[in-house]
Amino acid sequence: MAVTMNDVARAAGVSLKTVSNVINNYEFIRPATKQRVLDAIEQLGYEANLTARSLRSGKTSMLGLVLADLSIPYYAELASDIMKAAWSRGYRVLVEQSGNEAEHEKAALQGQFRSLTDGLLFIPLALDADQIIASSGKKPLVLLGEYVQDPRLDMVLIQNQEAAAAVTSHLLAGGRRRIAVLGARDGDETGSNGLRLRGYRAALAAAGVEHDPALVVPCDWRRDGGADATARLLDSGVEFDAVFGLNDAVALGALHELLLRGRKVPEEIAVAGFDDIDESRFASPSLTTVAPGRAEIAERAVELLIQRIESKDALAQVQQPHAAFELRVRQSAP
């Protein structure tokens, strides 16, 4: 038979109301009384009915996280960091994959998933700012990523342009002059791809190196995308002496294709990425990349969202902090 609140009350020698107050973290309870109730809960193995409690209090202590695809290493590692940050603050995290589809993103903002959480961390790739604002309701929302940037929305940002410029400058300092960029189209201006491409161009310009559109190759931000883009470059006859994958998965795919084709890395072609996923350290050769401050992003995003949840000031000023980045120089581009 399941343990009830009445069982806890009898074991602790207190009223049912006192047990309820302890479970709901009522502040005006004597420490000794609270400890007796907590001890009884532990000894009896009582599990509170969180659904009923959330209906009464209007609070679930759950955060929502909506992202495109957990099979993308950066998203998986970011989700892990977010869960750790939430746990340390007494919250849990529900994760929803949107598949980069507007219908799924909108459903996460409005549907049952939203009702189960007190606030939402959202990486939008299909909806624009107006659509997000129109669909998000009254519960707090913090954006991650750079596809949407709007002064009306809380968000935690990566220094995409500055970090990409740092990677490119490092390759240039190593004597590379024909740096291929994988994962963008030459006309991209917005989102992570556009911002990273802008940083690449800025570093070329600062070094007096002419930008060649033939070196900008679009591809999916996956290993197979990077491998395919590199194969197309090699087959085209376009000369290049370095590859900058706009995320590590692309760079690792490029690295694989280059080695498969018998190209020496970094002697002939240097390779660099962006994100510093765990796999980048264990590649052979290990991958030079930029760490965009993933742990800081998770901490600041969770902290900001919980502040919004627990604050009564709905009109507090919008916050848009940037996380610090760090260049990680390894064997693929020393």
UniProtKB/TrEMBL annotation:
HTH lacI-type domain residues: 3-57
UniProt protein name: LacI family transcriptional regulator
InterPro entries, per database record: HTH_LacI, LacI/GalR-like_sensor, Lambda_DNA-bd_dom_sf, Peripla_BP_I
Keyword vocabulary terms for this entry: DNA-binding, Transcription, Transcription regulation
Record GO terms (molecular function): DNA-binding transcription factor activity; transcription cis-regulatory region binding
UniProt keyword Iron-sulfur present: no
Pfam families: LacI (PF00356), Peripla_BP_3 (PF13377)
Superkingdom as given in the UniProt entry: Bacteria
Keyword Translocase included in the entry's annotation: no
Gene3D superfamilies in alphabetical order: 3.40.50.2300, lambda repressor-like DNA-binding domains
